[in-house]
Amino acid sequence: MANAPRYSGSDERMTAPVLGGKIISPWGVFLDTDTGLGWGYEGNALSYSAYVGASGSRKDKNESMQAGSKRLKGMGQIKSRPQLGVSAAYNLGGVIIGATLEHALEEDKHKETGKAFTHLELSLGTHLYEGPYGSIDAAINSHFGDRNYLQTWYGVTTDQATRSRFKEYRASAGNISNGMSLSWSVPINEHTQFSTLLDVQYLADKAGKSPIVEQRLQASVSGELQYTF
Fold it and tell me: Per its UniProt record, what PANTHER family does this chain match (predicted)?
């Protein structure tokens, strides 16, 4: 289960079940419901992966299993589209340096929400605790986007302004948000563990000044039961 804002910048919240799975072959090929189909390598200190998956989406109405809100009426739907991603992490004496770059392909170049866009996440993480009560990990992170990313998710075009309750807003490339995450995993048996995750983000000026943003501090919490075999 997860409880999160209805969309990035919303002060409304939604609770929904989260189902997922991941299959990894001995050769590093994986299929993951979060990232997609890809190949990865995990060494003692360095790990990296490349994948093809689907980008996020947002609707301008309330739906229990979809990001979006009726407050966005007139903004149009941001459709999911094919996305290419690369990710790398390096363990430097207990501090994990990570970077993930994702590029969503163009869905419709003539549509406000259909342009190709790029997103970058940089992170620093560490293990805080490991013992009989499970393990606790923490990370700080920053998110960045190109002009199309910021305009798609936080901008308001002239046409969108005439159809919605928002004034026109031209977003530019830059910092989207900065935040932290905290996860606690507790083993139940050899194959099963329960994990909780708290993620907090503060929308930076490029995104935070958008008229669709009702609250710049965004927090989400989730709990999941994981089974491996």
Answer: MLTA-INTERACTING PROTEIN-RELATED
pLDDT tens for residues 142-197? 999 999 999 999 999 999 999 999 999 999 999 999 999 999 999 999 889 999 99
Positions in the chain short of pLDDT 70: 110
* Nearest Cα to Cα of residue 73 among 134, 162, 1: 162
Q: For residue 14, report the phi and psi dihedrals to the nearest 5 degrees.
A: -140, 150
> What span, in angstroms and rounded, lies between the C-alpha atoms of 39 and 86?
10
Q: Considering the domain 2-227, what is its CATH architecture?
A: Beta Barrel (2.40)
Q: How many angstroms separate the CA atoms of 148 and 127, rounded?
A: 35
d(CA 86, CA 38): 9
